[in-house]
Amino acid sequence: MSHVFFRVYVTMSKRTSRFSTWNTLTTKSGPYRKKNGSIAYRAKRPLVRPRHPGRQQQPTRYPVTKNQKGLLELKLGHYHLTDFPKDVLNFTGLQHLELSHNAIQEIPGAIGRMRRLKVLYLQDNKILRLPETLSNCIHLEDINLTKNELSSLPQNIGALKALQSLRLGENRFETLPHDISLLGNLRTLDLHGNHLWYLPFALSLLTKLHYLNLADNKFEHLPLPVCHIVSLKALQLRGNGLSNLPPDFDSLKQLKEVNLSFNKLQMIPSSVTNLHELKYLNLAGNKIRHVSHHFATIAKLRVLHLQGNEIEHFAEGFVHMRYLNVSENRLYALSIGRMKKLQHLNASFNQMDNIPAGLFSCQRLEALKLNGNKLQVIPHEIIQLQKLRVLDLGNNELTCFPQVIDKMVKLDYFNVRGNFIKQREGSPKQVWPQSFSVTVKKDKVSPRTGKSPLANQKPKPALSGSSRFAQKKPRHVQSQHLDELLQNGFSLRHIQNGHDSVMHHYGRDDETDRQPTRHIVDRHDTRLVAERPGPSAGREAKHKIELKDGYSTFRSTETDFQLLGICNQVEMLLNKQLLQPTT
Fold first, then answer.
1. Which alpha helices (DSSP H) does 182-305 contain, by range?
2. Can you tell me the distance from the alpha carbon of 524 to that of 446, in angstroms, rounded to the nearest whole number?
3. For 481, which DSSP code?
4. What's the 3-state SS for 294-306?
5. Closest-CA residue to 249 (of 267, 224, 268, 266)
6. CA 155 to CA 12: how far, in whole Å?
7. CB-CB neighbours of 533 under 10 Å
8. DSSP state of 431
9. Residue 297 to residue 13: CA distance in whole angstroms
10. What CA–CA distance (Å, rounded) separates 57 from 49?
């Protein structure tokens, strides 16, 4: 009878342990003896995912732990829950609760019993409303309700005096309750991706608010309460319908970061120039036509985004600029002589026919992107930019580039694709190779064996790469190999680290972007020259090496009739001996 009971217990254990935290059969510790007489030790199994990921998982044992901040936390994210777990409400001492990335639709009113709760993460659910009893959790400091279906907040939301972060992005809010102004300790308020068009004037009473996100809403005019939150340090206004800023905007003296991208601004607001603590400004995707000298006097501005506008004139200044992006504009000239601390410059897709004035005085420059312009010449003085890591000159009108590019040892990315480059300055005149499909000169046949001395050797990949650490070759050969790789976006460091990977990726680009041409490689001196089509080209090409996905394949392209004749004579002699055997 006990044996039958034991079998039933095991079956129930296996059935109920699918969604449990620990397997009940292996939670016991200590050694046990197997049927074959050996001794083994039981080990605990970690928390496992359900076998059916689309099915709701209700764990019977909850992994309550203590995090780095010393808070008791429970994480049940990605459990495909459709209802709030009722057993969790019994953990009244819980301080950190995460139920994100589920399908919960309603929060029960019993959540008010969790009075010690400090962190509540419910983002990416389907919550329609919040219970009024949430105000009983007076110790709440961080609430994340991003990506839900909320349209209102509890009327007594102001009772959460300890709340410091409230994230309500990607919901259905059209306005906010006036009681939100009672959150005196609030420092972060995220309201992006809603349908807000109005903010209560009492919002200006949030004297400790540092971060306000109003991006992707329906504001046509900036609400006046925002201009009176003097404690703001970061303001996000991306993706609205703003055409100007109110004059009181310059009262935000502590503002360090402003994002006004993708609005309807036709000029840079004059109130922005009075923000002396401003360090980051994003004005991308507007209709701005010129940058005035008054705007260039902002002393501490370090990051400026102006891409996607209609700028034709850019004033000189910005002495503390570190990052400047003026791509996709209508600039014919650009002067950056005073930006001594500039590290990143993106002026691609403009109308410039010369490099920016004062470029070589920016000794800290690490990234320079001038692709999509009308540049014709790159001066040799570019060697002065020794810290340059990225140099993009693609899609211009260049016919050559200087030899000093090889001496820029820190260069990680160099691109001149889409130009008219036939040769590099200082290299012999030759057509640039276009493909890794090459033909090899015929080897001399040995008079003894009748075979080539290299017939049994594995063919080496043509264009095995050229770097400072490769085998010594003629200087013009290394120059040509290097030009071929650098033209397609590979750097010296990439070539030195792995030739096979470089050729592998280059081969893929050739199949889609370029028409393959052939070349002749001399096996004896590893000299690469361009193939000249003619009647002798077919006689010289006896074997062919093709690179497919980074690997070489060897196949014969012409029949050796002399060797075929010898084989026929041997076959006739053997047949004669078989038909007329000697006695």
1. 224-227
2. 15
3. H
4. CHHHCCCCCEEEC
5. 224
6. 48
7. 9
8. P
9. 73
10. 8
Helix or strand run (H / E) with residue 258:
strand 257-259
Helix (H) or strand (E) holding 537: helix 537-540
User: pLDDT of the chain along its 583 residues, tens only?
Assistant: 433 333 323 223 333 333 333 333 333 445 666 666 666 655 444 444 444 555 555 555 788 999 999 999 999 999 999 999 988 998 999 999 999 999 999 999 999 999 999 999 999 999 999 999 999 999 999 999 999 999 999 999 999 999 999 999 999 999 999 999 999 999 999 999 999 999 999 999 999 999 999 999 999 999 999 999 999 999 999 999 999 999 999 999 999 999 999 999 999 999 999 999 999 999 999 999 999 988 988 989 999 999 999 999 999 999 999 999 999 999 999 999 999 999 999 999 999 999 999 999 999 999 999 999 999 999 999 999 999 999 999 999 999 888 888 889 899 999 999 999 876 555 443 333 333 223 233 344 444 444 444 444 444 443 333 333 334 333 333 444 444 444 444 444 444 444 333 333 333 343 434 333 333 233 333 233 333 344 444 444 433 333 333 333 334 445 566 666 677 677 777 766 666 665 5
What token pair was written down for 492? 């010296």
CA–CA separation, 275 and 284 (whole Å):
19
Place of tokens 């996709």: 328
**Is-contact 353 374, C-beta < 8 A?**
yes
3-state SS track over 299-361: CCCCEEECCCCCCCEECCCCCCCCEEECCCCCCCCCECCCCCCCCEEECCCCCCCCCCECHHH
pTM over 0.70: no
